[in-house]
């Protein structure tokens, strides 16, 4: 049995524990209307920015579709034991230390067939794919076959942060349902409803929500994040010196700094540059934004040194700022 601490997703605020759905009333009304008709489409593509509640939506709507006793449903879902729910997601590898696989394997996708062969104990059987973006070519094709020929009384909820990258044939078999970024008020509500041991200070919450772009998930990642703090330091510099850029980059060296900190830093840096480029109509900053995206992709794809990457990106942006 996998210990909870081996999977970083196993936290008290995992979407399956959420008691309410906040800020997605329009999408929820559309789904519930289709469900009430008795003949909802069998496959739904839930798309929108990362961290806005797509997985929470899937668990909440899935629970409504399965019917039965609401309290019993909640207990089963929280313990990952509901007989009518199958969650297809990345699994842990078999090595030590155990880490999440980079993709959803074809073997995992094919294991869905056994679940679909069973009869529902309630109203509907529900499949949540979290996230469809993690499918590789083989697992995507395996899932496509199941989506094309679904058994009766099955609802498939595919979560995607970048639906444009999914198989066109897979997208075409789904009803697309866009989920929206939350207001700052709703975003703060989500953060403040976390378990007490995860609840941050009010000032920290305010700052994280303000930088989150309407994504509670991103706000959570920003709280206490080295990457967010490093970006904040750079953004406050009026005329950065080389020594200051090096000091910021040095924070990303060492074994204790996870790759997620680099991701947070680069996301915030790219968003900031894009906003400046638009506001100033600057071709230099626009070109820097494109270069940053490509540089980040290469760094992450080849697992290059994060310290050197951050220093290069900061120098790139600094040069663009000077030229603007």
Description of the structure:
With 324 residues, the chain is an alpha/beta fold. It folds into 2 domains: 175 residues, P-loop containing nucleotide triphosphate hydrolases (Rossmann fold); 99 residues. The chain has 15 helices and 5 strands. It has a 5-stranded parallel sheet. α9 packs across α10 and α11 packs antiparallel against α12.
Please bin the fraction of helical residues: 40-55%
Could you give the distance between the termini?
56 Å
> What is the CATH topology assignment of the largest domain?
Rossmann fold
CATH superfamily of the largest domain: P-loop containing nucleotide triphosphate hydrolases
> What would the principal axes of the Cα set say about the shape?
elongated
Order of helical and strand elements: HEHHEHHEHEHEHHHHHHHH
Helix tally equals: 15
The CATH class designation of the largest domain is Alpha Beta
Total beta strands: 5
Q: What is this entry, summarized?
A:
The protein has 324 residues and is an alpha/beta fold. The chain contains 15 helices and 5 strands.
Which features characterize this protein?
single chain; 324 residues; alpha/beta; Rossmann fold; 2 domains; elongated; disordered N terminus
Please describe the topology of this protein.
Layout: H1 25-36, E1 43-47, H2 54-66, H3 70-78, E2 85-88, H4 106-110, H5 112-116, E3 125-130, H6 137-148, E4 154-160, H7 168-172, E5 175-178, H8 184-192, H9 202-211, H10 216-222, H11 226-235, H12 242-250, H13 259-280, H14 283-301, H15 306-323
Parallel strand pairs: 1-4, 1-5, 2-3, 3-4
